[in-house]
Structures are given as C-alpha cells and as structure tokens.
Amino acid sequence: MNQEFEFGPIAQGVYIALLSLTVLIPFVAPEYFLHYVVFLAFIGIALRPFLVKTGLFNLWDSIGDAIQLKWDKKYLDKRASDIDRQIELEKYRKSRVRDPRLPKNW
User: Fold this and answer.
1) Smallest Cα–Cα separation from 35: which of 48, 46, 47, 22?
2) How many domains does the chain contain in total?
3) pLDDT per residue as tens digits for the range 9-19
4) Kind and range of the H or E element at 106?
5) Structural Rg of the chain based on CA atoms
C-alpha cells in the first residue's frame, strides 16, 4: 500500500533515548562525540528522504503487504475449513438416523 512514510513508536522512542544520551557521551567517550552527533543528525534529518528517494521504503512496504496478505489468506482458509467442519458435525448430530461409525453419546 502506498502510505506516507512514518516512523513507528519504537523507532521514535529509541531516537529520543539516543538524544537524551547526548549529554553523557562527552564524558564517557569524548573521541566519539562528533561522530555521535553526526549520526543523530543523519537519522533525524536525512534518513526519511534517503529511504523515500532510493525506493527502499516502497520495497519494504510491498514486502510487508505481501506477507500480510499471505497471513490473512492462511487464516481465512483455516477459518473456512473450521466452519465447514462444524456444519458437517452439526448435520451428523441433528440427524435422526445415527451413523454406526459415531460413538454412542454423539
């Protein structure tokens, strides 16, 4: 489905946690602070346009849709077979002539 690109709640939470850790990075690893800030800037500003322009978002979206359709089809097929089985069992239960293959208290 062609929907607008949006980060999920987990990705947003991770990004907010990384932003809050920016205060501690100069004390823990001062040699990586500049790399860390550039990384956060890339994620915050350039990641969304990068994914959209390269087509990776559309690829991921189409793969997710295909998987979802497969799961839905599998569930609907199983549900249809369950309903058919229930109808057949009810037919045997409500019949006046008992099938000799069925148990006594059926």
Assistant:
1) 22
2) 2
3) 999 999 999 99
4) none
5) 28
| Tokens 């249809």 -> residue | 80
Domain-embedded: residue 2: no
What is the rounded distance in angstroms from the CA atom of residue 75 to the CA atom of residue 80?
9
CA distance 18 to 25: 10
Residue 61 three-state SS: helix
Q: End of a domain among 54, 70, 87? A: 54
For 29-79, list the strands marked E by DSSP: none
pLDDT in tens, 58-81: 898 899 899 999 999 999 999 999
Q: Is the pTM higher than 0.85?
A: no
Domain assignment of residue 45, given as a range: 7-54
